[in-house]
Structure prediction request, 101 residues.
Amino acid sequence: MECLVLGCSGVGKSTFLDRISKEEGTVNGGMLPVLIPTVGSNVVDINISKRKCVRLREVSGAQRSTWCQYFPDCKSIVFILDVSNKTTDECESGGVTEGPQ
Prediction:
């Protein structure tokens, strides 16, 4: 099953993927990792059980115009917001308004 992880630039999508992909107890003492902005997409596979896997696909916030290309393959969407990030307002004016034609 594929899940899209979307949100504006700089809201923590990569940090979310980094945290959720680590086994419990292996996170660096609660410290956030130093991550560079995603170019294109970033994929993490999470094993739910021996037979089930969820693929989390993060798509760069700077590439909002391409998000709809990923919709047909996904079963769910996680939309990350950072209410303390003032650039989140850019999603209101430049978000995805139409799906694939």
The radius of gyration is 14 Å.
